[in-house]
Each structure stands twice: as structure tokens, then as C-alpha cells.
Amino acid sequence: MVDQIRLDGKKILVGVTGSIAAYKACELVRLYFKAGADVRVVMTEAAARFVSPLTFEALSANPVVTEGNESWHDDGNHIGLGEWADLFVVAPATANTINKMASGIADNLLLQTALAFPKTMLLAPAANTRMIENPTTVANMKRLALHRIETVEPQTKLLACNTVGKGAMAEPETIFAASLKHLFEKEYWKNRRVVVTGGGTIEKIDDVRYISNFSSGKMAEALVTALYARGADVCYITTREPRSIPPVHVIRVESAREMMEYTEDALRVAKKGVLTKPSFHSASERPELIRKTPWLFMVAAVSDYRPAYEQRGKLKKETLGERWQLELVKNPDIVASIDKSGIKTVAFKAETDPLKGLEHAERALREKGVDAVALNILTGSESFGSDTNAVTLVTENGRIEIPQANKIDIAFSMLESLEDL
Q1: Which of 124, 136, 375, 414 has the fewest CB atoms lying closer than 10 Å?
Q2: Which residues sit opposite 157 in a β-bridge?
Q3: Is the domain of 115 the same as that of 173?
Q4: 359: in domain
Q5: 173, 99: one domain
Q6: Domain span at residue 229?
Q7: Euclidean distance between CA atoms 388 and 239, whole angstroms
Q8: Do 401 and 383 fall within a single domain?
Q9: Which of 61, 79, 161, 329 is catalytic?
Q10: Domain-terminating residue out of 123, 153, 182
Q11: Are 175 and 191 part of one and the same domain?
Q12: pLDDT per residue of the chain (421 residues) written in tens, 0 to 9
């Protein structure tokens, strides 16, 4: 769902330093540009040895700013660029650049721009493992974290020096996703803990067969993405392998009982609040405990029934015979059963009958004790897995119609509407 977010009107400055990973910055710029952002690039002289400035100009449709063309008759300088950008992303950020930034050294145009930049910065380190794990680099990265500079952790893989270790720059898609909360953050959702469940639960019959449903998990992933972008602390409990979501805490489950257990655990943690980091100017102060009412979005399609007796191994058709009567027992109704005190809860309901759907949603609102029901009218199994949706939010105060749109837009609209609940 990350790749469906639009960045129209957002201004992003990408800083490229002298690392072999500079070629990955080309894809990052392309992703920002494709999403509609206005992208500009500032490069060090060392970076230009790896990738030509002309490449970035072609990808961003903007002039690249370097030591040799810094201009003072417009904003193509280290002060103007910082005033222009909503977000400054340094990718790749070499160990040399990280250590200089932490010491306030500004001996090239990129570092001068960073020193003058007044907003959030995002660093994507790229260096040899020993350079990244050097105590000086580690200490300086911690120091930068106190001063509105966040890090997208490097990967552990085969590096350019032909050794395996931590130091490869995060993938462009990961950096793109990490940018979202700095571009879309809202005070209501910022640092608020939210639990989202997604996918269709799996109830095993034996070791090769199971009962499930057609749920794709796309609406849940859209909500996870929108919540992360708004600044929420998200825990995603899902039966599906996440496809395109930001870096949130993910818990993989299978059955309804397993999902219920982990949802209850996640909510207990969510109710404890969030500790903030001390600021750069008050590092000696104790972190503040932020207590905001947690939210639960029960998007998962939970199987109503499960086999009464799960079998080991594979049941043979020769043993089962011509007819197989499978005994089923009812699964717990997770959203109705869990303790919802101290939280806000949104239940999701899929119906095929548009006339009775609202009636069923209103009954669920009362009987399950939730704050809202998100009603989705299906036209059949082909409705599952689509990229669009239409939702009716049913609350005690009435109904909110969210018309057919891309699921990521639906998710943002839902969050907007729920703020006043």
C-alpha cells in the first residue's frame, strides 16, 4: 500500500554522499517523483564519482546542486534548499558524513545544508560493517537521534567489500516508507498506540488442509500505512505475509484463537503509553510518558468455525470414504470477547446484502460494544483483493459515507472521520 500513497505538493531534498550505494539513490528519487513529490538533489563531489549529476537531473526534473554550481541569485544554495524542503533525506549517508554531522562540521555543501536545515532529517547509512559498528560512529548516531535526525537502519547482507555484515543501505522502498510519517504526521495520531488485525484466519483440519476465507489483507495494510504516516505507533497482527507496508511491528498468526491471544497481549502493552525521547537541548531530562487512548482496528476476517479435532499428518481419502463429515465448533468472537475498557475499537463488517447490511452493522455496534463499525458491501468473492473500496462508518452519532476510492485514500478518510469520535 505504500506505493499507492501520493506525495503531491510535498518538497523533498535528497542528499547523496560518496558511497557505492549512491546508485540506489536513483531509485529513491524515482519513487518520490513517481508519487508526485517535488524532488531536488544535493550531491557531494565524492558522490559524483559514483553517479553523474545528470542522472539525478533526469530522474527529478530539477537541477542538481553541487559545490560547483551553488547559486545565490535563487534558492540553489545551502540556505535556500533547507528553507524550500519539507524533508531532507541523506541516502546514502557515509560513516564520514554521519560523524561530521554529529560534530557540526560543514566542510562541503551537503553538510552545510544539513547544518542549516531546521526540520526533520532522515539518514540511510551505508558503510563497511566495522565503520558502522565503530564506537565513534555508534555514539554519533545516538547523538544525532537526540536532534530531530532519524536513521533508517542499514541491512545485513553481502557488502561491496565482499564481506557479509551490517552496513548495506536500506532498500529505497523502505526509506520511502520511513519518510511518510515526517510528511503526513498529525498530532491526534502522533505517538498513539494502535493495534490492527488483518487477513483471513487459518483453521487447520490436518497438516495439509485448512479452513479460511478470501480476505486479502489489503484494507488492513492500507490502514497500517495511513496510521504510520499519521505518526501512530502501530502493531500489526496478521495471517498474511505483509507486502508493502512501513516499518511497523508485525506479529504473524494463523488461527482465531492465536489472533485473540496476541491481540489481548498487544492491547495490554498499548494501554501502558509511550515514552518519548529527550530532546537535543534537554538530554538530561527524563523521558515523558505519553498516555493517549489506544485504538483497535479489527479488520481481520476471522473464521466463524474451526474443526473440532485437528488431525496430525494427512488424512487419506481412502480412510475417509466417499463422504466426509467434518465436525466444526464455533470460534470465539474476538471483538466481542476482549476487554475494550480504555480503548477505542472499530469493527469491520463485510456484507453481501446492501439492504440488511446497515441493520447488521448497527446491531453489531450495540452487541459488540464497539465505537464504530466499518461496513463494506461485497458483490461476491471477486470483491476480495481489489485495490478500491467503499465504506460506511456506523457510529452512535450516525453514519459517515466514504465513497468508492483507492483503499489507501479510504484509510486516510476513515482516520480523519474517527478523530472526532
Answers
A1: 136
A2: 165
A3: yes
A4: yes
A5: yes
A6: 186-418
A7: 21
A8: yes
A9: 161
A10: 182
A11: no
A12: 788 899 999 999 999 999 999 999 999 999 999 999 999 999 999 999 999 999 999 999 999 999 999 899 898 899 999 999 999 999 999 999 999 999 999 999 999 999 999 998 999 999 999 999 999 999 999 999 988 899 999 988 878 778 888 989 999 999 999 999 999 999 999 999 999 999 999 999 988 899 998 888 899 999 999 999 999 999 999 999 988 899 999 999 999 999 999 999 999 999 987 766 655 445 555 667 778 999 999 999 999 899 998 888 888 887 888 888 889 999 999 999 999 999 999 999 988 888 788 999 999 999 999 999 999 988 765 556 678 889 999 999 999 999 999 999 999 999 999 998 8
**3-state secondary structure string across the chain:** CHHHCCCCCCEEEEEECCCCCHHHHHHHHHHHHHCCCEEEEEECCCHHHCCCHHHHHHHHCCCCECCCCCCCCCCCCHHHHHHHCCEEEEEEECHHHHHHHHCCCCCCHHHHHHHHCCCCEEEEECCCHHHHCCHHHHHHHHHHHCCCEEECCCEEEECCCCCEEEEECCCHHHHHHHHHHHHHCCCCCCCCEEEEEECECCEECCCCCEECCCCCCHHHHHHHHHHHHCCCEEEEEECCCCCCCCCCEEEECCCHHHHHHHHHHHHHHHCCCEECCCCHHHCCCCCCEECCCCEEEECCECCCEEECCCCCCCCCHHHHCCCCCCCEEECCCHHHHCCCCCCEEEEEEEECCHHHHHHHHHHHHHHCCCCEEEEEECCCHHHCCCCEEEEEEEECCEEEEEEEEEHHHHHHHHHHHHCCC
Q: Is 235 known to be catalytic?
A: no
Same domain, 161 and 258: no
Boundary-marking domain end, from 155, 182, 209: 182
pTM: 0.89
